[in-house]
Amino acid sequence: MKLNEAAENVLKVIDSYGFKEQGAYNLRLNGMAVCHGDSRHIRIVKKEDKPGIDIFISGEAKDEQVHIPVVMSESGMKDVVYNDFYIEDGADVTIIAGCGIHNDGCSESRHDGIHAFHIGKDANVKYIENHYAEGNGTGGKVLNPVTKIYVGENSIFTLETTQIKGVDSTERETFIELAKGAKLFVTEKLMTHADQSAISNMDVQLNGENSSARIVSRSVAKGTSRQVFHPRAVGNNLCHAHVQCDSIIMDEAEISSIPEINAKHVDAQIVHEAAIGRINDEQLTKLRTFGMSEEEAEAVIIETFLN
Amino acid sequence: MKLNEAAENVLKVIDSYGFKEQGAYNLRLNGMAVCHGDSRHIRIVKKEDKPGIDIFISGEAKDEQVHIPVVMSESGMKDVVYNDFYIEDGADVTIIAGCGIHNDGCSESRHDGIHAFHIGKDANVKYIENHYAEGNGTGGKVLNPVTKIYVGENSIFTLETTQIKGVDSTERETFIELAKGAKLFVTEKLMTHADQSAISNMDVQLNGENSSARIVSRSVAKGTSRQVFHPRAVGNNLCHAHVQCDSIIMDEAEISSIPEINAKHVDAQIVHEAAIGRINDEQLTKLRTFGMSEEEAEAVIIETFLN
């Protein structure tokens, strides 16, 4: 499968593990699945009733990967895709998703990925989602993902989402349910610049006994961009949750962090921490003594903060 | 002024500084101002157009007190009162307010205190508000305070609110604006039991350069009671804010903490911490080795936590 240069570049950025046409994979380009492959333990089936795929992951899968990147290189497309993951008991898998937009035109390009994860018992699932946009056109680059994750008994779900740059507008909706002994690890990284806007709503229901969640959100807002975070952790049983949101505000940006912790059970233990502040001046000065310009020093600090 | 025993007891609980008919004071009993006095620097004037008083505090007032307790000992009353404080530049004053309800009847007793504070420059104002209710009747005891506080340049405002016990339902609305160099210190303590419900919304606007806010909220929820906290700190200038909410959850209670931190300026530095958890088991065990019953040990821990 040969991609044009723009698509190829975008694909490289969003699939940091390296996209290859081998094992289990599905590449969606400009609203169409252009190539796909199954592996022994992972089967990808095109949906009949709507755009998108069903991904069946066997309990036999151990330390396996599935790559399902989405690339939009044509201006003015609106792509809605429904992907459902059915993950059997005991599976151990890393799912590399993400969406990259190259928009050189003046019309809006928009991708709405609606993902649902149905996870059995004792599974270990890592889901990586990178969002990135580029292009010299005036057309907006919009990504509105909806993610629903049902984590079964004693399973572990690791969610790593990164909005690298270039996305003009995003509204993320994430809903997670944790069964008995299930563990959730979330790392959300987000950078906005210019007049971009980002809204992230996350609802974590700790339903099962001994379920736990650790959510870390780190963001940088530059220019006149706007960010709103609304993570919500609801303890419905004996459980632990820790939510941490740290943001760096720059220029004329605005950041709003509205975490909600809700204990509905006497043994629910939930902690939240949030901080918004400007870039560390001491660090900046220190780096500048090494001969860096202010911009270079800022870039280093931001990269360190986000990684 | 002779009060009946019930009213006398309630007054003692809510005015922890000790209410006396001297200096500046105003006692409101069952919807009527029953006694009042001015001091040299503090003048209390009954409003003409609606229930309530205007309190004028001169800049000459130094380390002075004004007591304005409200007592409701008759069942089935609904009392709405508007109190406005006009505090001149440089005043140094402690205002002891609060509302106590004794309700032995089967009708609801409700007090809505609507307070506004207009504070000049370089003033130091401490506002203490205790809420308490008692009585064997089935009638509800409801307190819905609305508090608006405008803190002038380089003034300090200290707000200490305590809901001691017995209040069946409360909805607190607090709005605060801070001018240049103004400092706010808030301590909110709240205990709910049985099937009580408490909602506290607080909106702090840090408008002025170098304004700062430190908000500490501590609560205990027992029985099947419900608590919702929604503090909001908005940084509109170079400013610092620190919001901390800690709650102990017991029995079948439910606590929701939804703090919002909102930075609208690159030099706004805002930190939030919140934690909800059950009573510390180690502390409980330790105290019980001293021969305390579980209830006694719990009471000690709660008292320590709230004080």
Automatic annotation (TrEMBL), chains A, B:
InterPro entries: Fe-S_cluster_assembly_SufBD, SUF_FeS_clus_asmbl_SufBD_core. Residues 87-305 form the SUF system FeS cluster assembly SufBD core domain. It comes from the Bacteria. PANTHER family: FES CLUSTER ASSEMBLY PROTEIN SUF, UPF0051 PROTEIN ABCI8, CHLOROPLASTIC-RELATED. This is SufD family Fe-S cluster assembly protein. It comes from Faecalicatena faecalis. The lineage of its organism: Bacteria, Bacillati, Bacillota, Clostridia, Lachnospirales.
